[in-house]
Amino acid sequence: MKTLKNFFKFPPTFIGIATAFAFLLIFFCVWMTAYDGVTDRINKLKIGLVNEDNEIGANIEKNLKENLPFKVKSYSSVTHAKEDMNNRNLDMVIQIPANFSSLLKEKNTTEINYFIN
What we know:
Elements: H1 2-7, H2 11-34, E1 46-51, H3 56-67, E2 71-75, H4 78-86, E3 92-96, H5 100-107, E4 113-116
Parallel strand pairs: 1-2, 1-3
Antiparallel strand pairs: 3-4
């Protein structure tokens, strides 16, 4: 306990503690205000959808277009969709691979690829 009392006798100790709390407060304020209203702007998110699977992928594509609150645009190739994303016309590209249905039927598992800019 005596060591702790001696530790708090030095002014740099209080400066260090005050600095730590100041950084904590500043970081908290900046972080929380950065995400203010994100859900209000979700309908402005633009997604490119590349469906290479004509079976189950077609149903998924239809459901995504009807049910997502985003702007969804279909593309025939991942290259073209990524090009639009790199030109800032899209925020994200979702790719349903050609073997999506077959993997789902055979292995009961599959994957959907996505790319974020």
